[in-house]
Amino acid sequence: MNLRDFLNKIFSRYLMLHLFAMVLTVVLLCVGVKIGLDFYTHHGEGISVPNLRGVSYDKAHVMLTEAGLGIVVSDSGYNKAMPANSILGQTPGCGQLVKEGHVVYVTVNSPSSPTFAIPDIVDNSSVREAEARLMAMGFKLLPPQMVDGEKDWVYGILCRGRRVSNGDRISIEHPLVLMVGKGTLDEADDINYIDPAYDAGVGEVDEFVEVKEPPVEN
Prior knowledge:
This protein is α+β, with helices and mostly antiparallel strands. The chain is 27% helix and 28% strand. The chain has four helices and 13 strands. β8 and β9 form a beta hairpin.
């Protein structure tokens, strides 16, 4: 068999028709699978998520249910400018296209401001440490009230004119005032000075005698 007969046998019309039929079958199969998947997954179709911010939870539940979507509360927050139990945020956001039955996660506004326990800072930290810890928790601080004591040391905390202690739960909306030492002592404090008495002949300490300052005449 020469080369020409061999090539004619390989590229015969019968063989080429079979190859073409196989390729056509593969292409039609791929197209059919794609159309089937698109139909099953509703490709290109979607529901636009409505804007829920400021809407009450009950109304948001009705809106999403009628649109064929679900709703789940994922978190809560507090915004005093918005009604209680209203929606503060949502995921997915407004206008995004989602499939039917998709769940929208929402953050609901709490009816009251959150409260936090005062950390252990009274008589246990400097003013910088106390300010850093309280501000990290979200508390607002007013200018400190200076009191007699060690400089920059926290001796107390005031909230709405009332002194609070470590562990007291305070609303995040109420500003705090730190009572900070100004580095001086009250002149009215009674200070006793104790000096040792020496025996001039021996040069050793025999006893300690308490000597008080005479009262200051006004």
